[in-house]
Amino acid sequence: MKNKYLSFIVVILILMLSGCGGSSSSSSSGGFSSGVVSTSLVTSDLIAANDNADSKNAGCPAESCFYFSYDDSASTASVELVKYYLKNGLQPDRAWGRPFEFLNFEKFDRSSQQDIGLFNVAMGIWTHPDLSNATTTLYELGVHVSAPQITKEERPNLVLTLLIDVSGSMEDPYIPFTLDKESAIRTRLDVVKYGLSQLCNFSLKEGDIINIVQFSSDSTASDVLLEGWNYSNADNKCLGVGSSLRTIGSTNLNAGIERAYLVANRTFKADHTNRVVILTDAYANTGEVDPAKVSQPTRINNQEGIYFSGLGIGSGFNEAFLNQLTDAGKGAYFAAITPLDIEKAFLGRFIALLNVAAKDTLFRLDFPKNLTHITTAAEQISTDPNKVQSTNFSYNTSQFFLEGFKLGETAISDETIKLTIQYKDKDGVGMTETIEAQILDLIQKEGQIKDAFIITFLADLVSKKQTCATFDTAKTTILKGYTSPIAEVYYDLIAKFCALKVGQ
Q1: For residue 175, how many other CB atoms are within 10 A of its CB?
Q2: Residue 446 sits in a domain of what CATH number?
Q3: What tens digit of pLDDT does each residue of 233-291 get?
Q4: Which domain holds residue 53?
Q5: How many separate domains does the chain show?
Q6: Which of 61, 82, 472, 499 pairs as cysteine with 92 (C-beta 3.0–4.6 A)?
Q7: pTM across the whole model
């Protein structure tokens, strides 16, 4: 199936949007240790083994190693939903409490990171007493991993197929409140139109090719509004098509995707970044509506060559449906609740939505046996790499990993912690990169671990894994008045959540 891009006439979506080392040295800025690093080629067969190797021959010992995933680095939709709901006095859905997406969303300082190949990485450890047992010391490991930063001028040219939902529900207000009657942007479709104006005016460049397909109850040839248009600022047909959009009918998501991929395959260019991006509230009510069936054809390890990203439009979009599809297909999606959200998606976060720096990325952490792994902010974790789905790591994104350990009876001496990253580069070549540092060098090099702790605490409150009373204790003991710009934002969000008295 490899590289036979044009043979995929219908591709249903990827939706919305270890090695060895030695002793370590510490970084002088940001408090994170740089450690000893190595970079090497690894065979593509080893990477592929993540999907089909015999687990008895593949894993690692539970007392000293695990594989993990914090989802696609550009997947952050739950954060925008939680923040929006709390700022408006609404109760967030429990399912939105996904700590890995919160850590993906926030921007952490990169000044202490070390170049280990494609990735830049820094590690640190914050030690503190266990809140439930003051005689036990906990070790909070923070690992900050960043992909390269690229600009619009540096990114490859696009063949971008926009798939736009014009069903009747897109005429609903984008927020469930009374809107300013003077505002020209009131409905979900208005948000889409505004986003297209930002995209067409500011984010495209010469050499980009644009397709626009609309969908509702059925998908027909007449729904192809723009095909094979070469971007030109002087003749911006993209803007005209966007402004002409009108709602009609119900939502046949499946038929719309089929039509979009017919167009995307007709205009495919091997030397371009080929993407389909859907803009929808994801309430499929006509045709195939089972997300398991819709997502099944995405399980082809990204070999189709045309990835699927997306934007969930409005505060009431069907996030659960989109999240299930995203997990099945390794895609990235954002929430675009308001005009400001979609502006960010098509401007500052546009490259992250579309451009993958590392494919089939899998992380492994090796640690000494006198530490016991007790908490994680990861989406998936296992000693068997076959049970952790590899993901895509986008340009202009970072991931902050927060993993908790407790110390056993043996004191720490010269033991090390090692992170291994396996991935395929843009040419499909298997790579591995590692960073290793002594634990004693990492301790109290806290970096932004306390920020990550506070961020994930909000996610755990939303998912009901933690309580407001426990956070109050943490704030007055182990955090001891800690403050930072990120911390202050999350202190406020936690206060808003606790004021709702949700299950407290």
Answers
A1: 17
A2: 3.40.50.410
A3: 778 899 999 989 999 887 777 788 888 888 998 999 989 998 888 899 877 665 555 65
A4: 1-504
A5: 1
A6: 82
A7: 0.83
